[in-house]
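Subgroup meeting minutes
Present: P.N., E.W., G.H.
Scribe: E.W.

1. P.N. recapped why we're keeping a running log of single-chain structure predictions: easier to compare across weeks, and new members can see raw inputs and outputs side by side.
2. G.H. added today's entry (205 aa).
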Amino acid sequence: MKLTIFGAGGRTGLLTVYQALDKGHFVTAFTRKASRVTIQHPKITIKEGDILNFQQVKEAVRGQEAVICTLGLIQNKPDTTLSEGTATIIRAMKESGVQRLICMSSAGILGNDTAWIFGKVIVPLFLRHVFRDKRRQMQLIKESGLDWIIIRPPRLTDAPKTGTYRITLGKPAFRSIPRADVADFMLKLLTDKKYNRQMPAIAGY
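Output recorded in log:
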């Protein structure tokens, strides 16, 4: 399959690129800094660009069969880059005739889908702005009319891929999940339509 991965230079994005190539996909890796994606492979195209630049995003999406979005926010400050970037991706997908969108978000975006201490203390005190924009992103995707799935992982770790994880439609079944397993699940969803237009949570054991 031909797919574009946005946020390819991030920790989860890079793992998704590696795994996608390993599975035989043709990957367009879109990243703010090309130096972050040092992978050399005959089936990868690396595109450096600004997620808010429509022409750059459209060029990365044109001719693809699916899009995986692993964009995130690092600092907890008022910011709309995530939601505006997602809006740019959605517009580019529609104009290019690409329907399949798999997006990684976070447990907690529904308000009642995470541990009490995280949802009621950590998010309001330390992640308020991050989650505000994540919720804007969620709403844009839900209203896009695309063939979408939003993934809700809890705390991401750098542990090795296990290939075994639990999927729920409510709260995550555990407090953490390896990034590599999130990447594995997103790639499975390229063709598995079980969770179409739903927001499954993924968690480890």
